[in-house]
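User: Before I run my own analysis I want an independent prediction to cross-check against. Here's the chain; please return only the structure tokens and, at the end, one sentence I can use as a sanity check.
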Amino acid sequence: MEKINWFISKNKRSKSRFAIIFLDIDNFKNINDTKGHDIGDKVLIHISKLLLGAVRENDVVSRIGGDEFVIVLPEFEDDMVIIEVVQRIKDALSKPLKLDSNIYDSITASMGLTIYPKDGEDATTLLKNADIAMYKAKELGKNNYHFFTDSLNEIIQEKVHMQKLMANALENGNFKLFFQPKVDIKTSKIVSCEALIRLIDPKEGLVPPVKFIPLAEESGFIIPLGEWIIKEAIRDIKSWSNTSLSKVKVSINISAVQFRDKKLLETIKEYIEYIDASKLDIELTESVLMSNFDENIRIINKIKELGISLSLDDFGTGYSSLSYLKKIPFDTIKIDKSFIDDIEYDKQEKLFVNMIISIAKELGLSVVAEGVETKGQLKYLKGTECEIYQGFLCSKPLPKEEFEKLFLLYNGMI
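Assistant: Structure tokens:
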């Protein structure tokens, strides 16, 4: 901070510029968690040496905490000089890491860039904005860099607002479960539903899930929110136990972040005791399963032992779905909406859908078609062995009371 303030004082008189690079090591927590903190410390020392070797003689390199570094470039002719330094840093980190006669994967970093005085006229503002730009670089896929812009600040402020809104909503009961019906293709009766989280802003009304779900996963808020969803879904299932909806099965989504939470299994066990476990279905996407596969299988088997069914969501959009079907005890696969959209007209889409259904049937799995929106799509599915459809053709996701009414109507009870 003293160095930055000195550069500010110097450059204010000369009316010249200097740059700041805010650097964060990607996935450093994984190194500490898997290799231990001793190795993590050695990695940080190694990175420090690499950074010193990548910058120019008059540049300043500092570690400001954890796995975060700040580099000050006191002099540069144009912005390309900054990019050249950034590229040298990326190149230096990209080589395999040799420590204690062991070779580890190469390191990557995300970097945010600010320029004095354009992006701030004091040290605190320059660092804050560089930090903001660094997080944007992470969003772009990590191992990247990004210059600060005013629009980034607006995005950060929106994120801060949304985080406060989510926290208040969980505390004040402004999260609600909506239910999208799943319809038996042969009988045209609603047999189950998918529970979907919705946020009701007291001032602005319904907040689109795309605005808060990614942020909840990024910030870790999905953990307490996911527990609330499990608890609330089971409460709703219990409320239907002595009604006309007693046989309705409810599906809930578990994200990759939730699945890595060590308390997930305990949470499910705690609440599942209050209902018939066969009325609950958990939907997982392929991304949930991609890392730590053996541990994931262990958890999935524990969930299955409780009597809960398991669905593979968005089938066909990943790379290894067939191998997962062989190794994981799924009960249902859901054909992704992208395959259903053009099923009326596209021969290739028809071929894919028929193949998916055929594979599922050979493995003894049920099939749900997602995103059915037209009568033509449904007509085609009726000629296949697909059992259930879900989509706007029947209904959008509905609040509990409206879903109950629709269920009674579809099932000829009113």
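Sanity check: The chain has two domains: 2-148, 160-410.
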